[in-house]
Design brief:
Distance between the termini: 42 Å
Strand order of the largest sheet: 2-1-5-4-3
Order of helices and strands: HHHHHHEEHHHHHEEEH
Structural class: alpha+beta
Helix content: 40-55%
CATH class of the largest domain: Alpha Beta
CATH architecture of the largest domain: 2-Layer Sandwich
Radius of gyration: 21 Å
Number of domains: 2
Length: 281
């Protein structure tokens, strides 16, 4: 049963505890609200302000599990707080484990502050959970995929257009890297895991994947410098720094170029010319 009163109180307390700077929003000189406004939380949760306001007023329909998950992420809840919100809303919390899409609040706080360099948060299978605007401008909008196609490693072998963003001379390395990475995750998670399912699907769908899978290569990790062939600004060489959240098995990827380099100038141009994100699907 949904606990409307308990859920409303919990949402109000969590909303007023968050400050604009905690979620990457400007405070503004005339701000008087303690914490975030309802409409700000609604935007973070990808729902209408009216719908969110009704939840805080103990009205409206029972939120779906998907909606509760979105609220938990928008309010930067910890995993325990997320589970509590699910129970208040009358649902069983999602199982804990490597397959979770819930991003830890610490990583979200860092991500929200990265507004001047491309950044994204991905799962251990390369499923993009969050991108900032510059991240979308650099590699395209990767958050709209569903099913196995959420994984860049899966798309690499099933959607040829994915490779257009990378120099042809790097393609074999990426094929080996994605296969090696999938084998590593399969070893960690076991034969009943999502990684095992991806391996089965790719074995059926891609002769190239089968060829590399039969080599049993392990330990092929991303290069520190990544090269892109961007459709708007041309060739780019960027460093990719990785911050790992071991509890969630999520990684924050931050792309930077060496100051003064040609790639740095092109990254600066990217922030101007790509205000409307391109699509590389």
């Amino acid at each position: 049963m949904i606990d409307r009163s308990g859920m409303a109180d919990f949402l109000r307390v969590r909303r007023t505890a968050l400050q604009p700077e905690d979620v990457g929003l400007p405070r503004g000189a005339r701000r008087r609200t303690s914490g975030l406004r309802r409409e700000e939380v609604a935007a973070l949760c990808h729902m209408s302000a009216d719908y969110y306001a009704r939840l805080e007023r103990e009205r409206g329909p029972q939120p779906s599990e998907q909606m509760v998950a979105s609220i938990a992420q928008g309010l930067h809840l910890s995993r325990d707080e997320r589970d509590h919100l699910f129970r208040l809303a009358g649902h069983q919390p999602p199982p804990h484990g490597a397959d979770t899409d819930h991003i830890g609040p610490g990583m979200m706080r860092i991500f929200d502050r990265l507004t001047d360099t491309p950044a994204e948060i991905v799962t251990e299978l390369g499923e993009t959970l969050r991108q900032n605007d510059l991240g979308v401008a650099l590699v395209g909008d990767l958050c709209g995929y569903s099913g196995p196609s959420r994984s860049i490693g899966y798309r690499w072998f099933t959607e040829p257009s994915v490779r257009l963003l990378y120099p042809p001379e790097d393609h074999e390395f990426y094929s080996r890297m994605y296969v090696s990475g999938l084998r590593r995750v399969l070893g960690l998670r076991g034969p009943a895991s999502k990684a095992a399912r991806f391996a089965e699907l790719l074995t059926d769908e891609s002769a190239e994947f089968r060829e590399f899978w039969e080599r049993h290569e392990v330990g092929i990790v991303p290069r520190e410098v990544k090269r892109f062939v961007h459709p708007e600004v041309g060739r780019l060489e960027v460093n990719c720094q990785i911050l790992l959240d071991p509890q969630q098995s999520h990684s924050l990827l931050v792309y930077t170029a060496v100051p003064g380099s040609e790639s740095y100038e092109r990254m600066q141009l990217l922030s101007v010319t790509c205000s409307v994100p391109h699509s590389l699907r």
